[in-house]
Known about the structure:
Elements: H1 4-7, E1 11-14, E2 17-21, E3 32-35, H2 38-46, H3 53-74, H4 79-91, H5 98-112, H6 120-156, E4 161-165, H7 180-189, E5 193-199, H8 206-217, E6 222-225, H9 230-235, E7 241-244, E8 248-250, E9 255-258, H10 261-270, E10 274-278, E11 284-285, H11 302-305, E12 306-307, E13 310-311, E14 324-327, E15 334-337, E16 340-343, H12 347-354
Helix pairs in contact: 2-3, 2-4, 3-4, 3-5, 3-6, 4-5, 5-6, 6-7
The structure holds 5-S-methyl-1-O-phosphono-5-thio-D-ribulose.
Amino acid sequence: MKKFFEQSPAIRWKDDRLELLDQRILPARHEFLPLDDVESVADAIKDMVVRGAPAIGITAAYGVVLAARKRYAESPENWTQLINNDLECLAASRPTAVNLFWAIENMRKAIDGYQGGDPVPALLELAMKIHEDDIQANRTMGEYGADLIVQHCRDRGIERCSVLTHCNAGALATGGYGTALGVIRSAYARGIIDHVYADETRPWLQGARLTAWELLQDDIPVTLLADGACAHLMKQQKIDWVIVGSDRIAGNGDVANKIGTYTTAVAAHHHDVQFMVVAPTSTIDMSLMDGDDIPIESRQSDEILYVSGYRVAADGAEAWNPVFDVTPAKLVSAIVTENGVVQAPDAEKMANLMC
Ligand code: MRU
């Protein structure tokens, strides 16, 4: 039987439009939202219909195709100028995931090289290539990450490892297969995973709603825990590896990811637990020397004050809602990319990877 990530992509181009699996209502409902114009694509990214750094980038690439179709129909002579506002509208949707800007930049280069005629077929081909390349990168990273786990088992004379993941860095967050969950899928298939734990990931509950659902679709058992429980779990020696994705990695190996990742990394360091970051090279931003310059998205306080539409916080309480944090490179055991693995990352090793 086909696995979940093969039969159910979260992003698809169908009947000349973009369709996104609406991740706001998973796992209760499995519905696709059809999108015909670039403004709705930008809104879908902002509103978290689609989320996860690579998935946001792929979605934006298809958004550029929709924009080109409209602008070319309006003015075959001036569409390459008219589309600038559309690219800006997409770029303004979410600030942290660099894959968004990477994908827009790739589409922009293709627009700059426009030679005349209908631009849509070539741009659609490029968007589909960005999508397909991401899936291939995830499969490669899955194997590299699983190799690290095999090595770890050998070094310690154990048969299997238990892992903890944070947020959702799976098929839902990418073109398919997943980054962190790609490693977990590959390692599980090799029989070297003892147990998968997932942080529930407040406030959007990507762990409880999406990671748990996605793993269970592939018959991979998962145990959820409250975000604050991770140090307690590690203290009991129940975790060998933390495996997470990333939204942006700076030139020195500092890693931005879902809020709470840093907490998990600090706890992992304290308990001698390995910390693996799995991300394609499109997530690496060599223009930033370190993580201090990574823009961190802040979302509305209602996401903290309310749960499923009900106010749970005391009346009058205010909330602070940064949705990403930065884990310093010194807390990272390995960064796994499709181009190779960087152990104990630093600026020199990152530069070698990216050259
Ligand atoms: O706010 P989200 O759900 O878009 O945050 C997603 C994450 O933090 C993921 O871990 C990251 O984008 C990597 S996805 C492969």
